[in-house]
Design goal:
Length: 114
């Protein structure tokens, strides 16, 4: 169960689960040497998550400047694990089979700001 609060006086929301999604690129220098086709895939990926952000499913997403290589971070709020799996499996970066993959971890609790 998730204990989700947007402020200290808010009631817990137990019908949602939060997951940290890490999009692993096909290679460590992917962010700097994408082919034009890969760039199109990543633009579709960004549009996909922008729509889920607008819907309130994605809480935050974007690239992380890791010295070992840029990777993508997303935090999502879903009803269940099945919904989470559908979201990552339908990501254009995964569907395009460019070598991108996800590591997904459930959050035990989440505090969400306004």
């Amino acid at each position: 169960m998730s204990d989700v609060t947007s402020n200290p006086s808010a009631q817990p929301t137990l019908d949602k689960r939060f997951y940290v999604c890490r999009l692993l690129p096909p290679r460590s220098n992917f962010a700097t040497d994408m082919t034009p086709e890969e760039r199109q895939v990543m633009e579709a990926h960004a549009a996909y998550w922008s729509e889920h952000l607008r819907q309130g499913v994605a809480i935050v997403y974007g690239p992380v400047a890791d010295p070992k290589g840029v990777w993508g971070l997303g935090v999502i709020r879903v009803k269940n694990e099945e919904q989470m799996r559908e979201l990552v499996e339908r990501d254009p970066a995964v569907l395009a089979r460019i070598g991108a993959s996800y590591e997904v971890l459930p959050m035990l609790k989440a505090a969400v700001g306004a």
